[in-house]
Please model this.
Amino acid sequence: MDPIIILQAGVASGTVLLFATIGEIFAERSGVLNLGVEGMMLMGAMSAFSVTVATGNGWLGLLVAMLMAGLLAILHGIVTIHFQADQVVSGLALTFLGTGLSLVFGEGLSKAGTITLLPRFTVPLLSAIPVVGPIFFTDQSVMVYVGFAMLPLVWFYINRTRPGLHLRAIGENPTAADAMGLNVYQLRYFYVFLGGMLAGLAGGTISLAISPGWFSELTTSGQGWIAVGLVIFAQWDPWRAAFGSYAFGALRRAILDIQGPTTLFGFNNPFYYNPYYGFFMQMLPYAFTIIVLIIGSRQALRQRLGAPAALGLPYVRGERGH
Amino acid sequence: MATTAQAKSGLPFTIKIEPRLDVPRWLSPAVSLGAIIVALILGAVILKLVGGDPIAAYVHIGKAAFGDIGVFSDTLVKATPLIMVGLACSLAFRMKLWNIGAEGQFYIGALGASAVILSGLVPETAPRPVAITVMLIAGVAGGALWGFIPGWLKARLNVNEIITTLMLNYIAVALVNYFVFGVWSEGGFQLSKTFQKAAWLPRLADYAKQIPAFRGLTTHAGLIIAIIAAFIIWYILYRSRWGYEIRLIGDNPRAAQYAGIDIVKNTVLVMMTSGALAGLAGMSEIAGVVHRLQTSISPGYGFTGIIIAWLAKLNPLVVIVVAILFGGLILAGREIQPAGVPRLIQGIILFMLIASDVLLRYRVRVVRAGEI
Model:
């Protein structure tokens, strides 16, 4: 029950949620809700692991994972952007499809074992900072650092650059954006694809770095859905997404750790090796997601605080704007 | 999509896409059928890619699901919970309430129905009608409770029901596991003791003495409950004032609000009714098939319900037919390797289905150069 270790592990497993959440933020900012995150993550985890097992190259595995999940996302794009299908149903279909595909192609893959194929390292100097150093910069997977580097870039891109302005425009008011000369369809495709690639990266990060291996559906165990929930909590803001992701990662680790010691704060630990409490422990991440959503929704003066106004609405060129 | 998209090349014809003003009655089923056929072909291609024999697989599905009266009876057994979860999803989706939690509501329905038997609330000596009725009420109440939570959160706090219903699925499974392992475990196994016979829904085989043709047929009375439920839901949706309100909210929430329809109340009520139907499915599965509480009582019935609802265009009576087809797919799919194949085919079907909807909204015309 060392809090430093819990937070350190939380940052590691929270990185998975961070990638998926950032990806979904991009898609939703452009106006397309993609509920297929869980399916895309599974596809990413499966592709990354199988390619890495076959070639021995984890980077190649990650690349393929991003492409495969991105391709799935494109499918969602075609159906919702061009065919104006309901985004909710299409996203659900994507999760079915991604899960099915990854189970079919991942058949027998779990026998390949659990080799860690991405490097871990400690950042010199930064790791010497008290508290922060051991939590964020000591013996972390390279993917964790990729997450750190991505965060300010994503924030800057969305809020301070011209393409970021365009991204927000097509999600807030596609008709006006179109009148400004932006190609709404093309941009939405791009961001849906980008969101898919990041979900694939999240999946690959699980199977290659955070909990290496392929365990069929248990590989993601609903984290794709938790990420979709975190987007609402984060109010479509990358920094809040990072906070939520790391906190969730730490919670997952704390739930595991609390069952370890025989005494807790000087008392007998009621959770110690009690398998029945274990089932309630399993519920906690999902219960917390609901709580986080309630908090997120309560502050959600949604129009003012973030939800892109055109989220979930198909854009039909030439028709009167929404 | 542009209302008039034209091929830019110098082809001797252009393709015009125009909005349809009226949809012929035959078109919708024809497009759905076409979508399913395309989906099955795509599924075959993928099966081939992973080294399977798609034709053999499909022939096997057909034979193993509809080949003779015995397997068809088993198909109906699988279809029974599917009808009920299909109804659950259809009702909620009609109001654009995305209840993705039929799976969890199914589990809690099963838990409730088992609890009244295993806790001894219904004595061993209770006659069958009493036992079944109490189980039914408990199952429906369990499902309704599991629908109430996301419904209330949505109505009062505007919490996204897609995520809450999904999270409640995971919680429901863990809760059932706790009871199976921790409270009612039979000698440490992953199952409770078997219910007394009075708590079993009657099967066709029970009447084999009077009607010999029923020998070995496992179809149980849950099917009748499911069909009655389908007719009730159809009546509610299309013949009652409440159904009109539900449909109006689904089609145009703003107009519904102006018309003075209580959206908050309906959100909670529809979610509870939807949950109750899924809970009924759990009760029927427990009382009709499994006869005890155990882990993994559902091979994803709740999720298949989503596809069934969509394929049936949210029409409760069509749900019955679609559920029987999917019952066959699930029954036969159990033996197909890799295990992900049925899920994969379901995913492709759903995708093709929603993509094909565009054909209902637009007509595609090939116009030769010179014509207008």
Q: What stands out?
A: Residues 128-157 of chain B form the longest helix (30 residues). Strands of chain B lie at 13-19, 362-368. Chain B touches chain A through 49 residues (CB under 8 Å).
